[in-house]
Structure formats: structure tokens, C-alpha cells
Amino acid sequence: MRNVITIALLCLTSGMMNAQEWTTPIIEGYGRIKQFNDVAAQPDTSLEYNIVFDVKDDRELDGVNIGLFKIARLINMLGTGGVSQDKIHIVAAVHGGATFAALNDQKYKEKYNKANPNTELLQLLRDYGVEIYVCAQATASRGISADDLNDNTELGLSAMMVLANYELKGYALMP
After folding, report:
1. Which of 27, 156, 28, 143 is nearest to 85 (CA)?
2. Average pLDDT of 129-156?
3. Which domains does the chain have, with CATH numbers?
């Protein structure tokens, strides 16, 4: 019996030591991933990744907007998978409940009594080359002016227009 317990503990300890750690290799601090080399559907380094994200949810994951988190996660997976940055073209259409995630710190603080937790991530995504459009229809309906938005975003006529334009250009839609 004692040997069975010892073997079980060794297996458990060994399994825990081999477990992958969560990392954020490209967009540092955001979009955590675990790398798995022995699974299907790995990034294809021969492809151009033209993707448009529909960022409309106000939910958060790891303290930031879930849609922005997903963009960082995809960049981290693609980069870790060997896809070069020049083959990754990402656009975000921010609207609906996610609109407030695109506020500058001053306006966000006025609304929520704290700095915008998305500010650093918006900067990192923009620095990486992500184009972030905020729906002007959504801002208008929420009383948000262009001056209220984070400097790393651009005002677009509507999220529908951003999504339609980029899908027609061949970008894959990521909901």
C-alpha cells in the first residue's frame, strides 16, 4: 500500500512539474496563453492573418475588456507559433457595451471612479499594429465625444461599416 501511495504522489508531482505555465509572450501582461505543441490546428506560418474582431461585450477577463483580451491572446498564440508580425493584420470594431472600454482615463474615471484598466492594453495593441475603431453611433447614443476616447483608437462611422468593409476585403470575422 505504501508503494502505491508513493507512486501516486510521484506521478502527481511529475504531472504538475510538466504542466504548462500561462504566459504573455508578445503582448506582455495581457492575453495569457498556454503553449501546446502536440495539438492540432497550430498557427500556419505561410498564411497572412487578416482578422477583424467584433468587440461588443462589456465583460472583463483578467481585469480588461474580454474582446481586447482575445485580441492579445490571438497575437500571443500566433507569435509563439512562429507567425511573424508582418503577417498579422488585426482590426477591432468596438461598440455596444464595450464602447466604454475605449474611453480615455479622465472620462473613464468620471464614470467609474477609477482609471481605465484597458489603457495600457490599448496602447500595446496599437503599438503592435492593431487598428482600433470605435463606433460613432455607439458613442453618440452614449453621450461620448471623440475627445473622450483613448488616443489609441479612431472613431469610425459605425461598427457595422468597419465589419462590412474589412470582411469584404477578405478579413475573417472573429466574434
Report:
1. 27
2. 98
3. 21-174 (3.40.1260.10)
